Automatic annotation (TrEMBL), chain A:
GO molecular function: hydrolase activity
Organism placement in taxonomy: Bacteria, Bacillati, Actinomycetota, Actinomycetes, Propionibacteriales
Domain Hydantoinase/oxoprolinase N-terminal intervals: 2-171
Protein name: Hydantoinase/oxoprolinase family protein
InterPro entries in the record: ATPase_NBD, Hydant_A_N, Hydantoinase_A, Oxoprolinase-like
Domain spans labelled Hydantoinase A/oxoprolinase: 192-399
Pfam families linked: Hydant_A_N, Hydantoinase_A
Xref: SUPFAM superfamilies: Actin-like ATPase domain (SSF53067)
From TrEMBL, chain B:
Organism: Kribbella sindirgiensis
Top-level taxonomic group: Bacteria
Name this polypeptide is given: DUF917 domain-containing protein
Coiled-coil regions listed: none
Domain S-Me-THD N-terminal: 6-162
């Protein structure tokens, strides 16, 4: 048995799973006290379906604590950003593109030092230990409690970040946390550095949250290991979470999509979450969301986190339905304007005066909410046209998100999914799983562990296959090191892009391997 | 006219449009220029036609791999040192700085030097677009020599080349750039004001700003940003569709490949194939070439109007493909020899965007 818990900003969802069977599930309001909230959630699960804590093999938690702390700029540690690259990079020092408010919230200080690598692994400059000791002295003087180290091309060679960390540790002591960029981001110095600084600022909060979560689980008599879910749908253990809180940032949407997919029994599908105002469309390939290729702004800071690619369109249960008198499908519009949370006052079926998408669904007999008599007089042609409009727009969004011409089944979740027919245009079959209200928690509970490689390789003629094999093997090795069962690791994502203007057929290879968590028998 | 921090976003976006899929991510150039303007204040921009005959104009640019530039940022004074190195070698005091390539990241590199050195910037460039090699500029057609040129890395290494042809300048500077870690700053094509008036494309920097603003404005007004770009460039919409295939090949120095765009809406039932080598060079509609280099072939996100680089093209992207006329001098026989389809290995006569 395993337990999955998703702590959102508003709700906390929890499930007890046996394999992929849901034994118990509940939803409650998120409490301000994390530890108390988790204890309460576990009590509810226990009340719903009595279980022996010793039989629980793993507990997986997805949380928005860290991203919320950053957005609200609270509980952030005084942080220094140290970049190794001089004389290069001085034109744009660390923190230069951060919102002032956030720099103040982390008492941000930035330092430049010699070091860094070229794209091919040569040194830009040698590390200068005395320079680093001087910086450390200044950090100490200013009460810095967490340090982010970045070095030019550290995804190619991490040696300078490791050595600088060692020097800082001996100067600053073990109480000052150190985060290194090569462990956090990919190529793109500023974006990787920004993610590392955010991570550094969250380290103290991470320690206290992780202690709270571990205490709550242990207090319930569960001795199984505790994991946190990451942005890409894989897991990290609690020690890792203390060091890399930033990796949990976008776990919510990923868990929701993966949970929905599991519930529907599909691993390659589009997931359409139809809410009140918008529908979010994401695509899972072999159970993992496609990642957004663009940079992501978090709290006004540009980063290159691995975030799921989600397309939002303005169609939901509260969308306004309008027509110009003509009832042909292409003249009837649904959304993007919506009554939103006022649906239960303004929709016709709730005694209001506004024609919404929900009224259309009720009139068509697809849903039983409110007073069906209130929509009995709607023109059937209008109802048909509006539903066709919704189906066409959603199908179009799915079509945009597709990554290959193969047919793609659609999993519909969310309160507004009553708007969707059983088949979308383009012969896309629509699946509607049970339990989707707790899809997030299920997604957390079924998460796997992964390993990733993202590097520039010089590919000599005739050696492409060997280089590709090397990259794949390294991803697999990393997944196993992170706790994956070696027998069940597979490559879920592979991408190679030649880089212009670099010699030696330089190619950027990204490769991700994942596998099931190697679970010990609970004692 | 002054170039201010708030102009840099539109400038970078417009430069990415003229980059025709190549020229590098202007975001990093924009950040660098914003930082320079924060420190030194706005930059004076001078129309090409207003340059005095005896002005000493020094263009400055980044050479190398844009992918490297997003990782190994320039040193604090690398860009201005490139200018000073060339000025010292030719024994002249520069009066104006200039942009040699308006497309992509090189639209903003001269802004940084101009801010740091307190010199005015010429509102024009040597191409009116982006091309991959340094001899591919209109001054080459006008008989202006690329060298003496300076090349400077972030470590403080400085070099000067004096070559027999502009092609040799490309070859030697390319080798030096690789040793310098694939990202160097060059200052080249030193010329007089009269030379610049005779060989530059006038008004390209302000045009980039105008294009960038037109895209933003169209988006704000929920109008069609693609149509806004077509209007600004006096171009033509070739195709609207969805990318259904992207093939890339690894060949030294170039990101070569093809992308197929299946028609939607007005282009329904037609297939457009883009052939690119860093920049988009040929567009074929249902098997027939409909636009080629030296005219501009531009790929925009249909909805947002955002320019898409060849590296970022992927399956499912909704794109609009447009063609716009290049500067007329590129269509001369010498221009076609320098940058026509055959130079890039396509056995085609050049086809104009507006034919």
């Amino acid at each position: 048995m395993r337990i999955g818990i998703d702590v959102g900003g508003t709700n906390t969802d929890a499930v007890l799973l046996d394999g992929t069977t849901v034994l118990a599930a509940n939803k409650s309001a998120t409490s301000a006290d994390v530890t108390a909230g988790i204890i309460d959630t576990l009590d509810r699960l226990q009340a719903e379906r009595s279980f022996d804590p010793a039989q629980v093999q793993a507990v997986m938690i997805g949380t928005t604590h860290f991203i919320n702390a950053l957005i609200e700029a609270r509980r952030l540690a005084p942080t220094a950003a140290l970049r190794l690259g001089l004389p290069a990079t001085a034109s744009l020092p660390p923190l230069v593109d951060w919102p002032e408010r956030l720099v103040e919230a982390i008492s941000g200080r930035s330092y430049l030092a010699h070091g860094g690598h070229e794209f091919d692994g040569r040194h830009i400059a040698e590390l200068d230990p005395d320079e680093l000791r001087r910086h450390a002295g200044d950090m100490m003087k200013h009460g810095v409690r967490s340090v982010a180290i970045s070095s030019v091309f550290s995804p190619v060679s991490n040696e300078f970040e490791l050595r600088a960390a060692e020097i800082l540790r001996s100067e600053l002591g073990d109480d000052v946390a150190i985060s290194m960029s090569h462990e956090i981001g990919r190529i793109g110095l500023l974006e990787r550095e920004n993610a590392t600084i955010i991570n550094a600022a969250l380290r103290e909060l991470a320690a206290s949250i992780v202690d709270g979560l571990s205490g709550a689980v242990a207090g319930h008599g569960i001795s199984a290991p505790l994991y946190l879910s990451q942005n890409d749908g894989t897991l990290m253990d609690v020690d890792f979470a203390r060091r890399y809180p930033v990796a949990t940032f976008a776990s919510g949407p990923t868990n929701s999509m993966r949970g929905a997919a599991l519930l529907s029994g599909l691993d390659t599908c589009a997931v359409v979450d139809v809410g009140g105002t918008t529908s979010d469309v994401g695509v899972l390939t072999h159970g993992f969301p496609r990642e957004a290729t663009t940079e992501v702004d978090v709290a006004g800071v540009r980063t290159n986190f691995r975030m799921p690619d989600v397309l939002s369109i303005g169609i939901g249960g509260g969308s306004l339905v309008a027509s110009d008198g003509e009832l042909a499908t292409d003249l009837v519009t649904v959304g993007p304007r919506s009554v939103g949370y006022r649906l239960t006052e303004e929709a016709l079926v709730f005694g209001g005066k506004t024609l919404t998408a929900t009224d259309i669904a009720v009139a068509a007999g697809r849903a039983e909410v409110g007073d069906a008599a209130a929509v009995a007089d709607l023109d059937p042609t209008l109802v048909k046209a509006a539903l066709a409009r919704v189906a066409a727009d959603i199908a179009d969004a799915v079509e945009r998100m597709r990554t290959s011409p193969d047919p793609l089944p659609v999993v519909a979740v969310g309160g507004g999914s009553i708007l969707l027919p059983d088949d979308l245009p383009g012969s896309l079959a629509v699946h509607r799983p049970d339990h989707f209200a707790v899809a997030n928690a299920i997604g957390a509970a079924i998460a796997q562990v992964g390993g990733e490689v993202d590097r520039v390789y010089a590919i000599d003629p005739g050696r492409r296959d060997a280089v590709v094999d090397e990259a794949r093997q390294e991803a697999v090795d990393r997944a196993i090191a992170a706790g994956a069962d070696p027998a069940a690791v597979r490559i879920v994502d592979f991408d190679e892009v030649p880089i212009p203007y670099l010699p030696g057929n330089a190619t950027r290879i990204r490769c991700k391997a994942v596998g099931d968590l190697r679970l010990g028998t609970a004692s | 006219m002054k170039l201010r921090a708030e102009d840099l976003g539109p400038l970078a976006r417009g430069a990415a449009v003229l980059g025709t899929g190549g020229g590098g991510d202007p975001h990093i150039g924009r950040l660098l220029a914003e930082q320079a303007l924060r420190e030194h204040g706005p930059v004076e921009v001078v129309a090409v036609g207003d340059l005095p005959d005896d002005a000493c104009v020094l263009p400055v640019a980044m050479m190398g791999a844009p992918t490297v530039m997003v990782e190994k940022l320039p040193s604090a004074d690398q860009i201005s040192v490139a200018v000073e190195t060339l000025a010292k070698y030719v024994g002249k005091t520069p009066t104006h700085l200039a942009c040699i390539e308006a497309g992509g990241v090189n639209s903003t590199v001269p802004v940084i030097a101009a801010a740091q050195l307190g010199l005015p910037l010429v509102d024009g460039d040597g191409m009116g677009r982006a091309f991959p090699e340094l001899q591919m500029v209109l001054p080459t057609l006008a008989g202006i020599e690329a060298t003496p040129m300076s090349i400077v890395d972030e470590k403080g290494n400085r070099g000067v080349f004096d070559t027999v042809t502009n092609e040799w300048a490309e070859r030697l500077a390319r080798s030096a750039t690789i040793d310098m870690g694939c990202s160097a700053i060059v200052s080249l094509y030193a010329m007089t004001g009269a030379d610049a008036r005779g060989s530059f494309v006038a008004g390209t920097l302000s045009k980039c700003v105008t294009i960038g603003r037109a895209i933003e404005q169209a988006r704000r007004q929920l109008a069609d940003p693609v149509a806004a770009v077509v209007d600004e460039l006096g171009g033509r919409l070739l195709h609207v569709g969805k990318v259904v295939d992207v093939q890339r090949r690894t060949t030294t120095g170039f990101a070569r490949g093809d992308a197929a765009v299946d028609g939607l809406d007005g282009s329904h039932g037609r297939l457009l194939v883009l052939r690119f080598q860093n920049e988009h060079l040929v567009a074929e509609l249902d098997g027939t070439a409909v636009a080629t280099t030296p005219d501009l072939i531009i790929v925009l996100d249909t909805e947002s109007g955002e320019p898409i680089t060849t590296e970022a093209l992927r399956y499912g992207h909704r794109v609009s493909v447009l063609a716009a006329p290049a500067d007329e001098r590129w269509h001369s026989p010498a221009g076609i020899d320098l940058v026509g389809p055959r130079y890039f290995g396509y056995d085609l006569d050049p086809i104009r965007a507006l034919s």
